[in-house]
Amino acid sequence: MSNEEFDNLKEELMWEGSSVVMLSSAEQKFLEASMAYVAGKPIMSDEEYDKLKQKLKMEGSEIVVEGPRCSLRSRKVYSDLSVDYLKMLLLNVPATVVALGLFFFLDDITGFEITYLLELPEPFSFIFTWFAAVPLIVYLSQSLTKLIVRESLILKGPCPNCGTENVSFFGTILSISSGGTTNTINCSNCGTTMVYDSNTRLITLPEGSEA
């Protein structure tokens, strides 16, 4: 599309409240470089473009995440990986339950002094709840999670063969490592063997396999 059509589309999306158009300076630079390349007037080298794209991937930008595709240079089929923030959040659920249990246990052994503070007249109850009780529970839950699960990262992406989304965990649970920066998993739908790389944020097929 032309620059005018692009600007009109951007303005229309902004009026509709789309978050896609609220881009960072790096994302804007990436889009400009992509459009310039398509127009046959590149504004940066391939190396600079790849570095910028990788930087945005590591920051969790959605504009660089693409579905299954084939590389003409390497002749490989691959897909992009993105962070599964929902499952990352759910990692804290067990520790949050434990932290709440400890919180209520502490309330019990102190003769329900904490309950008394929670029932104080406003604004004292609000201040104690949101500036003391909640931060304490969050701190306890995060500390317990980090004690059990270290350097955790959950990545998701579509299978290059059938497009089904699959998830893989990277990290250490109770000193047991997931296996480093790459995981080999089988697609939950078609059974295709895939290699998840947390450094490049790419899904590739092992050598000799076919999509």
TrEMBL record:
Q: Which UniProt keywords apply?
A: Membrane, Transmembrane, Transmembrane helix
What GO biological process, any one, is recorded here? Answer: photosynthetic electron transport in photosystem I
Q: Name one GO cellular component term.
A: chloroplast thylakoid membrane
* Membrane-spanning segments: 85-106, 126-149
Highest taxon of the lineage: Eukaryota
Keyword Protein biosynthesis among UniProt keywords: no
InterPro entries (alphabetical): PGRL1
- GO molecular function terms here? oxidoreductase activity, acting on iron-sulfur proteins as donors
User: What name has this protein been given in UniProt?
Assistant: PGR5-like protein 1A, chloroplastic
Species of origin:
Citrus sinensis (Sweet orange)
Q: What's the source species' lineage?
A: Eukaryota, Viridiplantae, Streptophyta, Embryophyta, Tracheophyta
